[in-house]
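Q: Could you write out the predicted structure for this multi-component system? I'm mainly interested in how the pieces pack against one another.
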Amino acid sequence: MFRKNTLVLMFVLALFAFAVSALVYPLFDRETMRLGLDLRGGIHMVYQADFSAIESGKESEAIDGAIAVIERRINILGVTEPVIQKQGADRILVELPGISEAEKAKRLIGQTALLEFRERIINQDGEEEWLPATAVVSGQEKILNSAYFRENTYIDTGDFGEILLTFEWNSEGSKLSGEITGRLIGEPLGIFLSGEPLLGDDGLPIAPIVRSKITDRGQIEGLSVTEATELSQLLNAGRIPLPLTPIYDQTISPILGADFIDMSVRAGIIGIILVMLFMIAYYRLSGILASLALLFYGALVLALFKLIPVTLTLAGLGGFILSIGMAVDANVLIFERMKEEIRTGRTLGAGIEAGFNRAWMAIRDSNVTTFIVCGILYWMGNILVAGAPVKGFAVTLFIGVAVSMFTAIVVTRTLLRLFVGSRLAKRTSLFSVSVGKR
Amino acid sequence: MFDIIGKRFRFFLISGIVILIGIISLLTIGLKLGIEFKSGSLMTVDFEQEVEQSQLKQELVDLGYANAIIQRTGAGDFLIRTHELSADDKLQLMGALEARFGRFTEPEFSSVSPMIAAETGRTTVFAVLGAAVGILLYVTWAFRRMPRPFHYGVCAIIALIHDALVALGIFSILGGILNWQVNLMFIVGILAVIGYSVNNTVVIFDRIRENLRMDMSADFEAVVNNSLVETLGRSINTSLTTIIVVLALLFFVGVSIQNLVAVLIIGIIAGTFSSVCIAPALLVVWDRREWGRFIQWLPLRVAKAKK
């Protein structure tokens, strides 16, 4: 019996050492805890695609195209580990962890980035109107826009230091541009970005006068360096083939995320210490053993979080800290049962065994309800757009409660059994049992 | 020896009053739904200069956001909630606020469209119903060898509905006074509380099962009361350790999970009360079919209180 307990103790200690080293050192390529967006800061956005202008049967192709373009645009920002995924059939999820230029990122992703060239028409009421410049090429009427740009636009400086956004037409664009600019010599050509006039650095719309027929390359003058650079990058990344509307947006600054981690760690440590003090004050020696088991519990759960890996969110940390409070429940059940058994006149050893055996059913049955709830929260977190915190809570609470059953049954029990053999065990008061009081 | 079951009508009365106040508040004030359920935008702003809540409110009204809800957080930031802002609306609003109050940072921004809000609401209803049905089935199954296992399941469910109603009622009042909102974290809290409360109830039922098995002929009321008293130490201690850690969360992890923590605290207290004082008592009442007696007892009690 004693041999077996020593073996179990060795196993527990080895597991503890493993857990601690997994936390301290990178094991299995896991350098750090995986943090969710709310702790790292960043952007979580979901876009709804509008298929109304897409031929039926081509929807999936269009959305994949949109994802590819968004990926290229995000590369401009240099975000590490971005997530760009299709969600369901008609949504795109974009996660940019740790990003600090949130507004710029959203502007980059959300734009259709279509430059359109328009000609000025004076309508019947004598007002000027800008209508898309069109020409007939290979038997079809087509609008002149940046869809015919080669994806190699760049920034050039003119003779007087002016900034020039330089682009090249592809073969079709070349014909189209030739037709249109040939027709409009001496007339202004308006430039519109996503339906709005493109404004120059001076705040006025950019609408250069056509001086000659343009067939191969063109230049846009009047933008500031930053605007021109951004536009050039956008154009080179390609055009999103269908309209996207943001339907969910969560943006958290990385500084706030770091604060959350500090606060949760502090709450966790204070929580553990208070629970230990309570257990020791109330259950004395058993409480000390339960506290040791709790330390083991904390290390094992955190190591599992790191190794699985579990994406930790603020709610997830809340779930873990809640599970600390619930983790001692199995111990409390066992100790209370033990005290009852000892009061009825059993020896300490028999009391411990009976306490564990009888408490086990209650521990098992009662934790199943928590598992049911965790399962439902996990399901909910998976299908909800805003579900990451819900899922995080479910996972950490589940792992927490499952490990707590193990630590109570294996660790606390082994420690108690080993103490039965020692001299301390003669004094039942150490277990806060006062025999004969009842 | 405590006689908890003997005082069952008194406990029903206490719960009844708390729930009644909550229901009145729910019917009059209602619940303030968060953007996850109602759609809209929520931003946290942190001004460099000192800004009064009334000034901010006035500015938002002037900008055309008369419906904006403003809440001051413990850290001195403001939570501003508006209808769903487009990218342009937001840029304009930010520009206007900066022009009026000087520089500020925006640690958090979220925006939810009506479509997502509707989906979230629907999923939440399914989740809560799913949890209730799952627990009913499980508890009935766990006590399948007992006479009338369904009683145990139903009493556990009544206890958890009790806890959910108490939490909803208190949140309705908090919403009226402090503008607290029912958001997704609230729902997570409610579900966690449901699991926790049933956990307590099952431990007590488990003891009833064990004690009944030892002596099937015993008086049911006495067995239930004994089981309650035997597990009382455990019920209280577990609730205490859980409350301790949840309080640590409340004091250190500010406003973003404040709703989760608040629901947990309310729920743990209500859940412990319902597990100890309501669910086992309901078993006894059901066993003796004395539903009518509570109605007869009430006027007596009220008359006694008047003296």
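A: Regarding packing and overall arrangement: The domain at 42-110+247-251 of chain A is CATH 3.30.70.3400 (Alpha-Beta Plaits).
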